[in-house]
Amino acid sequence: MRSETLKGHLDALILSVVSIGPLHGYAIIEQLRLRSGGAMTLPEGTVYPALHRLEAAGLLSSYWSQTAGRRRRVYELTRRGERELGTRRAEWREFAHAVEAVLSPAEPSGPTAVPA
Amino acid sequence: MRSETLKGHLDALILSVVSIGPLHGYAIIEQLRLRSGGAMTLPEGTVYPALHRLEAAGLLSSYWSQTAGRRRRVYELTRRGERELGTRRAEWREFAHAVEAVLSPAEPSGPTAVPA
DNA sequence: CTTGACACCTAGCATTCCTATGCCTAGGAT
DNA sequence: ATCCTAGGCATAGGAATGCTAGGTGTCAAG
C-alpha cells in the first residue's frame, strides 16, 4: 500500500482500535494489521509519534504498566477522543462516498449533469 | 473536508475525471466538485501543481488551446496514465476495504481472532 | 469602472508518514 | 556463553503532498 495513501486517516484508525479497550503501542500495531487483514502493517516510526500526537491533542490518555519485566505505555480513549472518533468515522464515510463517486467510470458530464 | 484527508488520493481523482475526455484545469476542478456532490471543492493551488506533477510523471499530456481570447491548458491521459488509473482504482478499493474493516465497531480481538 | 467569473501560475508553509537508528528485556537456539 | 528473534519504546531527519496567499490577465455585466 502506497505510503501516502494512509495520510490523514491514521488517527481515526488508531482511535478506533483503542476504542475497543486499552492497548499499548505494540498491540495497536498488531491490531491494525489483524483487523485490516494484513493490509496495514505499519512501522513503529509511524505509530508511536501518532500516539504522542493524539495524547497531546487530548484524544488519548496513557499510563505505564509493568508486565513480566516489560514496560508498556497503555493508551485509552478520553471523552474527547470518543467524540472525535465519531466525527472521524462520519468524515470517512463522506470522503469514501465522494471518492467512489469520482472514481467510478461514468459518461461525460456537462454543466447540466446535475439536475436542479 | 479535512485537508489531510485527501492526501495521496488526488492523483487518482484527477486521472479519473480526465479519463472521460480531455479537460483543462479549471474544468477539472469543476468536475471534481460536481461529481463529488460538492464535497470536493479544491483550491487552484492544489490542482494546478498536481497537474504539473502528473504531466512530469508522464501520466498526462497537455497542449494550449485558445477559446474566445482565453488560453487554456488542456490535459489528456497518456497510455501510462490509463494504466496508472487502473492501478490506483484497485489500490483505492483495497485501502477503502481495509479502513472499513478497522473502523467498523467490533468485539475485542485476541491473537486467536484470525482463524487459520 | 468595478465586480465577478474564467483561467493560469508559484513560493512557502504545515502536516504527515516513513526510514533509520538507538536503547532495553526475555527466551530460545547454537 | 553468545546470538538471534520477538517484544517494547523512542527520536531525528527526509520526502511528499496539499493549502494559503499572492500574482497575472481576459471578458461580460452592472
Summarize the structure.
Two copies of one chain form a homodimer. By secondary structure, chain A is an alpha+beta fold. Chain A has four helices and three strands, in the order αβααββα.
What is the strand arrangement across the widest sheet of chain A? 1-3-2
Estimated radius of gyration of chain A: 18 Å
Q: Figure out the total of helices of chain A.
A: 4
Structural class of chain A: alpha+beta
Tally of strands of chain A: 3
Task: Average the pLDDT over all residues of chain A and give the rounded result.
Answer: 90
CATH architecture type of chain A = Orthogonal Bundle
What is the general shape of chain A? elongated
Number of domains of chain A: 1
Largest beta-sheet characterization of chain A: 3 strands, antiparallel
**CATH homologous superfamily heading of chain A:** Winged helix-like DNA-binding domain superfamily/Winged helix DNA-binding domain
Largest interface: A-B, 44 and 44 residues
Distance between the termini of chain A: 39 Å
Instruction: Please write the CATH class name of chain A.
Output: Mainly Alpha
Poorly predicted segments of chain A: 111-116
Give the quaternary arrangement of the chains. homodimer
CATH-defined fold name of chain A: Arc Repressor Mutant, subunit A
Beta percentage of chain A is: 15-25%
How helical, in percent, are the residues of chain A? Answer: 40-55%
Pattern of helices and strands of chain A = HEHHEEH
